[in-house]
Amino acid sequence: MKFLTVRELRNKSSQIWKELQDEQEMVITNNGRPVAILSSINENNFEVSLNSIRRARAIEAMSSLQKESINQRTNEISLDEINQEIKAARKSLNK
Questions:
Q1: In sequence order, what DSSP letters do the residues of the chain get, joined into one string?
Q2: Count of beta carbons in the 10 Å neighbourhood of residue 26
Q3: In whole angstroms, what is the distance from residue 51 CA to residue 75 CA?
Q4: pTM for this one?
Q5: CA–CA gap between residue 10 and residue 13 (Å, rounded)
Q6: What is the spatial distance between Cα 22 and Cα 35, in angstroms, rounded to a whole number?
Q7: CA distance linking residue 14 with residue 73, whole number of Å
Q8: Which residues contact 6 (CB under 8 A, 6 or more apart)?
Q9: Which of 9, 23, 28, 81 could cross-link to 36 by cystine, CB 3.0-4.6 Å?
Q10: Count of Cβ atoms closer than 10 Å to residue 8 Cβ
Q11: Do 51 and 67 meet the contact criterion of CB atoms below 8 Å apart?
């Protein structure tokens, strides 16, 4: 996989678009850190590619929430405790 800086993308964009067909994916970096991925797509696979990216982001978000729950030990809360929290929250909203 090829890595490009933001500056290279700006200054050599026409060359990069040509190379993207062969490379399939390129990582764009800013100050040495990855900030974006360029991926070669076409009319036929656009929807599938977009759905795959969205699905990957959702999985990443869920994984992050699960890790946060473990770190905060909220994964150990019982169903009864969860229901009590929901009931208390709903009650405070109705006031």
A1: -EEEEHHHHHHSHHHHHHHHHHHSEEEEEETTEEEEEEE---TTTHHHHHHHHHHHHHHHHHHHHHHHHHHHTGGG--HHHHHHHHHHHHHHH--
A2: 19
A3: 29
A4: 0.65
A5: 6
A6: 21
A7: 51
A8: 28, 29, 30, 35
A9: 28
A10: 16
A11: no
Whole-angstrom Cα Rg for the chain: 22
pLDDT of the chain, 95 residues: tens digit per residue = 899 999 999 999 999 999 998 999 999 999 999 999 999 998 999 999 999 999 999 999 999 999 999 999 988 999 999 999 999 999 998 87
